[in-house]
Amino acid sequence: MRISVLADRPDLLEPLWGMPSPWPEFMRHDPISSIYYNVAHLIFPEFVLVAEHPDEPGTVVSQAYSIPFQLVGDELPDDGWDGAIRRGIRTHLAGDTPNIVSAIEIGIRKDMQGKGLSSLMLAAMRDNAARLGFTDLVAPVRPNGKTDPDEPMSVYAFRTRPDGLPVDPWLRVHVRAGGVIEKVAPRSMVIPGTLAEWRDRTGLPFDADGPVHVPFALTPVNVDVAHDSAVYVEPNVWVRHRTA
Fold it and tell me: Rounded to an integer, what distance in angstroms lies between the CA atom of residue 9 and that of residue 139?
């Protein structure tokens, strides 16, 4: 499996963009995401990794996005994924020196899932951060094994199997790779919308006040009919990897 940084392989940009998104439709409407994905290839090409199919050079089967930012103090932010992007863009625009790298996404083409590629991409992302002089790679992990939207993330994130590893498969990948779970980021992704927008995203009616369970959402979407508004606030889990 050949894994390259986009800075070295700009010819893979179009195949990268052409890879089907593994995200649920509603998650593609986080207003922060377009700020990053529309400029990552221009501003952060050294922090974007692409993996080519071993038998089909030029065909992208996995992507790994990350972003450097300046972390003030030792505490990782409560706004997780959104916060890493905001801080990364601000660090770049202000000309400040970043001191940490955050993972943004590891995406794998559907037919290549379950083949251990996620571990390879995580290791490559960590090694890339080390190559660029960073001692820490952090990740606001989305534990997509969580199936009960009403279970607090503060409970689920720290549930373990008899062997001591997390019950969540994606958190397990990180822990096996040497990552340490630090904390929950309670408002890692905030996705707002009108009721019509949420109907388009999910196919659900969104016609009553209160929480709505949306497939693949980690928490309920909160609906306010009178104000024609629904908001999804997703908690993620910060995991820290030392690059040495």
Answer: 24
With CA atoms as reference, report the closest residue to 177 among 128, 121, 130: 121
Characterise 180 by phi-psi region: left (phi > 0), alpha (psi -120 to 50), beta (else): beta
Q: What's the pLDDT tens digit per position in 110-168?
A: 889 889 999 999 999 999 999 999 999 999 999 999 999 999 999 999 999 999 999 99
User: What are the beta bridge partners of residue 181?
Assistant: 239
Q: What angle is formed at CA 102 by the lines to CA 182 and CA 108, rounded to 5 degrees? A: 105
Output the CA torsion 65→143→198→233 (10° steps). Answer: -90
Tokens of 154: 């503060």
CB-CB contact of 242 with 178 (8 Å): yes
Q: How many CB atoms lie within 10 A of CB 209?
A: 12
Which pair of structure tokens corresponds to residue 89? 């863009």
Q: Could you tell me which residues come within 8 angstroms of residue 105 by beta carbon, excluding any fewer than 6 positions away?
A: 63, 64, 65
What token pair was written down for 83?
A: 């916060």
Tell me how far CA of residue 227 lies from CA of 57, 150, 210, 221, 233, in angstroms.
51, 24, 12, 15, 17
Rounded Cα distance, 225 and 208, in Å: 6
What does the alpha-carbon distance between residue 211 and residue 224 come to, in Å, rounded to a whole number? 9
Alpha carbon 123 to its chain's center: 16
Q: What is the 3-state secondary structure (H, E, C) of 87-100?
A: HHHHHHHHCCCCCE
